[in-house]
Amino acid sequence: MDVISIDKTRQNFLLVYDTQGRFAIDRMTPEKAKFKSCKVRKIFVGTKGIPHLETHDARYPDPLIEVNGTIQIDII
Q1: HSE-up of residue 4 (Cα within 13 Å, Cβ side)
Q2: pTM of this prediction exceeds 0.85
Q3: 2-74: what fold?
């Protein structure tokens, strides 16, 4: 899942997979285009007790988030 922004036309799109594994594009509002949702796959504690969180697309360290949860990442 990725956000595509076209500055010239001021349009934002969400690129996702449909149920058959093909790409699908949905229009987004500018407010929603500032964030990206990521599914949490794994939580672990690194060296020196630093918490790590692994998602399908990024890492975000917050000890309050659980596995199989969803987080929003600010991409702007």
Answers
A1: 11
A2: no
A3: OB fold (Dihydrolipoamide Acetyltransferase, E2P) (2.40.50)
